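User: Could you write out the 3D structure of this protein bound to heme C? I've included everything you need below.
Assistant: Certainly. Input first, then the structure.
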Amino acid sequence: MKKWTLIALVAAALLAGCSTQNTQRPALLKSDNAKGKELFERHCAMCHVTSKPKDRSKLIAPPIMGVMWHVKERYPNKADAVRFIVDYVRNPSHSKALCPSVKRFGLMPPLHLPEKDLELIASYLYDNFPPQGFKHPKMGKGMMGR
Ligand code: HEC
């Protein structure tokens, strides 16, 4: 009898171990986009607008759909795009910049946010921008205000 109780306990412990492991979520799930959006709005949206601007002369940074258009042109793969954004935000530089608008706005100031938060933001941006049907205006005139 004692032996069976022991076996039952061991089995229960093993099962419990398995189920806690299963509840751990892999990084960058689509369902994390709500958190990414919230973080973007808190840390980035004051500079990067998310809809087509009415008055381009008031912009202090390129609208995010234009930014993501350039990022995806260079890094079509999500993992590469996320890695680029996480690195750029923490340490922007002229040599890394993909957006020609760096000439108009100057370099983005570095933001020291936790890597995990930046990954959530970057994943949200990759999944949502540019919106479907977006066409990047030709150089010379357009949303980049040049
Ligand atoms: C104080 C204003 C400001 C804030 C806040 C800001 N940015 Fe920027 N960002 C800029 C400006 C200006 C540029 C254009 C110049 C450049 O490329 O560095 C830019 C450019 C970028 C670029 C394009 C870089 C390239 O390849 O040219 C990315 C990506 C970006 N920002 C992401 C973010 C994210 C994500 C956040 C929030 C975590 C954020 N930015 C917050 C001002 C800002």
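Residues 43-44, 46-48, 61-62, 67, 70-71, 85, 88-89, 92, 97-99, 101-102, 105, 107-109, 111, 113, 121 surround heme C (CB under 6 Å).
User: Perfect, thank you.
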